[in-house]
């Protein structure tokens, strides 16, 4: 048995909690999750699959681009970690945008959502989510971005 201690942080977010999103529609949405942290990949995958999404995993920027190139016609969204060794999230985003300027990309980062939005201003990101995030918050953020990409209305309380 082991214990995992994480620092307590207070995060301001523009992403509504899952309870604030009415009936997220997942359908056959397929998400590519690129993150170098195993625990983040597995936790996010479980939350997203629990909400009905199909999730493809990549453990770094190089493998993420490989999966993206092989499956880009099937993908509905990319969830991209900002800070990774090797190819950073910034480099991966640049390459994805060279190939597909329309696919929704959500940046996940330990930086505040405001800092990430400022850093990527004009880079055509679809959303941000601050780490650490909960499964319901992640599902709500993904549902909102996908609904926006489809031109659907997402109502919040």
Description:
With 157 residues, the protein is an alpha/beta fold. The protein has a single domain, classed as Rossmann fold (3-Layer(aba) Sandwich), CATH 3.40.50. 37% of the residues lie in helices and 15% in strands. The chain is built from 5 helices and 5 strands, in the order βαβαβαβαβα. The chain has a 5-stranded parallel sheet, sandwiched between helices. The longest helix is centred in the last third of the chain and has 16 residues. It is globular, with a radius of gyration of 15 Å. 32% of the residues are buried. About 11% of the residues have low confidence.
Structural class: alpha/beta
Strand order in the largest sheet: 2-1-3-4-5
Q: What is the number of independent domains?
A: 1
Sequence of secondary-structure elements? EHEHEHEHEH
Spatial extent as radius of gyration: 15 Å
Tell how many strands the DSSP assignment holds. 5
In the predicted model, the low-confidence regions spanning at least 5 consecutive residues are 8-25
- CATH top level assignment: Alpha Beta
State the helix count: 5
Overall 3D form: globular
Do you know the CATH topology? Answer: Rossmann fold
In terms of DSSP E residues, the strand content is 15-25%
Based on the coordinates given, report the CATH architecture: 3-Layer(aba) Sandwich
Largest beta-sheet details: 5 strands, parallel
Distance between the termini: 41 Å
Task: Work out the helicity level.
Answer: 25-40%
**Relevant CATH superfamily:** Response regulator
> What's the average pLDDT?
82
């Amino acid at each position: 048995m082991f214990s995992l201690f994480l620092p307590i942080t207070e995060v301001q977010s523009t992403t509504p909690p899952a309870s604030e999103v009415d009936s997220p529609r997942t359908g056959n949405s397929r998400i590519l999750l690129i993150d170098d942290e195993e625990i983040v990949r597995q936790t996010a995958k479980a939350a997203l699959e629990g909400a009905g999404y199909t999730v493809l995993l990549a453990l770094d920027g190089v493998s993420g681009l490989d999966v993206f190139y092989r499956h880009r016609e099937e993908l509905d969204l990319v969830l991209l970690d900002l800070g990774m060794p090797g190819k950073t999230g910034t480099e991966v985003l640049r390459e994805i945008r060279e190939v597909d300027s329309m696919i929704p990309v959500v940046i996940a980062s330990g930086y505040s959502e405001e800092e990430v939005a400022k850093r990527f201003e004009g880079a055509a990101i679809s959303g941000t989510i601050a780490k650490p995030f909960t499964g319901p918050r992640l599902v709500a953020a993904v549902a909102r971005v996908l609904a926006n990409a489809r031109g659907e209305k997402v109502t919040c309380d």
